[in-house]
Structure formats: structure tokens, C-alpha cells
Design goal:
Layout: H1 9-23, H2 43-61, H3 67-76, E1 88-94, E2 100-104, H4 111-121, E3 138-142, H5 155-158
Antiparallel strand pairs: 1-2, 1-3
Length: 163
């Protein structure tokens, strides 16, 4: 899932994090839902959101089960074979020790893809705990880049052997 566009995956992640922080990071208490403007979000929240997004995107890009089934489902939703998937906004509840306890996202049409998504993320341990005062759930957007084009064969591979 390599990027074929001019923007780097990290800059795309940073833009999505800023947009989502602007959309609001809701607290776990429904009555006390809050939002934070990107300019008002503490730097450590933004850094942690970038870290969590990178970690979860990495899990989605792995080459094992249940990832391959889920990725095949997501690949089928691309608007064109050479386009990135639509961004998927995921609410992530993270325990104080960094373990993901729950996720919420727009349900997929296929139950198997939903089960794969839950199995892939819920119960995973992030390498770092969220900042103590960070509002949860964390809202992140993951997007699988457009498939990389197959590299053209090198000139030496296409020429006939000399006799």
C-alpha cells in the first residue's frame, strides 16, 4: 500500500489527524462529549493520535490473517483500481496501559469484514499509553494508499542476449 501520489503517507496522516482533532475527540461519557479545535489540541494529543494512526495502519498493511481478508474487502471498495480507499474513520478506546479495548466505525456490508476488523484491532497493545488527560475515544482516519504500479523491467532484462 504504497503511495503513488506526491504527498507522503506521514503528511497525509498528519492532515487527517488535524482534521479529526478539529472534528472533535469525544470523551467516554456521552453526556460530556467535547471537541477540541486543532489549534487548541495539546501537542502530545496530536503526536499520540499520529502514533496510533500509524500503528493501526501498519496492522492493516500486514500480510497475515485476518488482515488479508479485510484488506481484500477494502480493496474491492476502491473507486478505481489505482485509487486509494476512502478514509475510514475509527473511534478507538484505549486503556491507560495502551491496550485497545473497543472500536467503533461505520459497519461494513459483510459481517466477515466487521469480524476481521474487530479481531485485528481490539485487544492489541499499542507501544505507548495515551496521555493521561487525553479525551477518548480517539478518532482516527485510516486510508489504504493506491496500489503501487509494477516497476518496469530494467533495460538489461528486456534486451535479447548478445551472441
Amino acid at each position: 500500500m504504497r503511495s503513488t501520489s506526491k504527498s507522503s503517507p506521514l503528511s497525509r496522516v498528519t492532515r487527517w489527524i488535524a482534521a479529526l482533532v478539529g472534528a472533535g475527540i469525544a470523551s467516554t461519557t456521552p453526556v460530556a462529549a467535547q471537541s477540541v479545535a486543532p489549534s487548541a489540541a495539546p501537542v502530545e494529543w496530536v503526536r499520540y493520535a499520529e502514533f496510533a494512526t500509524t500503528s493501526i495502519t501498519g496492522w492493516l498493511e500486514a500480510h497475515n490473517e485476518p488482515v488479508t481478508g479485510l484488506r481484500a474487502y477494502l480493496d474491492a471498495t476502491r473507486p478505481a483500481p489505482d485509487a486509494a480507499t476512502a478514509p475510514l474513520v475509527i473511534k478507538v478506546w484505549i486503556e491507560r496501559d495502551g491496550k485497545i479495548s473497543r472500536i467503533d466505525y461505520p459497519a461494513f456490508t459483510h459481517a466477515e469484514a466487521n469480524a476481521d476488523m474487530q479481531a485485528l484491532i481490539v485487544g492489541q497493545q499499542l507501544a505507548a499509553a495515551p496521555p493521561r488527560d487525553m479525551l477518548l475515544p480517539l478518532r482516527i482516519a485510516v486510508q489504504l494508499d493506491a496500489p503501487a504500479s509494477a516497476p518496469a523491467p530494467a533495460a538489461s532484462e528486456t534486451s535479447l542476449p548478445r551472441t
